[in-house]
Amino acid sequence: MDTHLDGAFAPESAGTANRREAMKLAATVGVGLGFAAAVLPVQAQSVIQTPADGLQAGWVNVDVAGFAMRAYRAAPAGRSNLPVVMVVPEIFGVHEHICDVTRRLAHQGYLAIAPDLMQRQGDPSTLSDVTKIISEVVSKVPDVQVMQDLDATFDWATRNGGDVKRVAITGFCWGGRIVWMYAARQTRLRAAVAWYGQVNGKRGPLTPTQPVDLMRDLHAPTLGLYGGADTGIPMEHVDMMRAALQSRSDAAQDSVIHVYPDVPHAFHADYRPSYRKEAAQDAWARMLAWFRQYGAA
Length: 297
Hints:
The chain is of the alpha/beta class. It has helices spanning 5-8, 12-28, 32-37, 96-106, 130-137, 143-159, 174-183, 235-246, 250-254, 277-293; strands spanning 55-64, 67-76, 82-88, 111-115, 162-172, 191-195, 222-227, 256-260.
């Protein structure tokens, strides 16, 4: 068991059952134990704070079959026909760190948009207990809903300043799994980058398939960024995914998984103790280069 878990949950005398329940729930929603080791309240201060100077940044509504889904959008002010990056968050939803990531991308010339894919089920930012976040919100979010919401986000972005021929997606933890899934769905996607997302796990009514099942249908070359010391994503799963990529679609064969040895889960999350500056900066540069390589810049 990861020693950081004691800091993530209540003391042993009061929280053993709570921790165990969180671990079980984490496995069902594709986040793993490594996520739990990195948990801190989302209100924690980020190391990196990106201003909105020169940007059009703020909340917008994306129509999904009559449902107004909120999303945080950031883009260079006064510009159009921009490359697009959809940003899929961790289980905490679209909190300030995720908004900051969209602003970082906007300063690189992108229209970046982070949809609130859990809005129908609840607001994780109102909950301080990770077990409740998973049990009351995340575990109730069906994959089919997420895919439809991302389709609507894709369409909104390309109708509101984005170039339909240059759309990419990235996501973290829970969102990393979603990135793999969406890259196997959306035929117009140019590139994808999945940060420490589960590739194999429990299947159920709301999550009937896992990324490793879908690689024959992968449409966008995908870069996977993983930590070798991630306690929630077994390296045998990563190796299984590598093998699947090499024997499937052309996009799958173009895909790459990069592992940072001795780096934990959530190494890019600069508001958590898991943050590893050197790996995070290198991975960010790899992501931008990947987008350029596959025509999403």
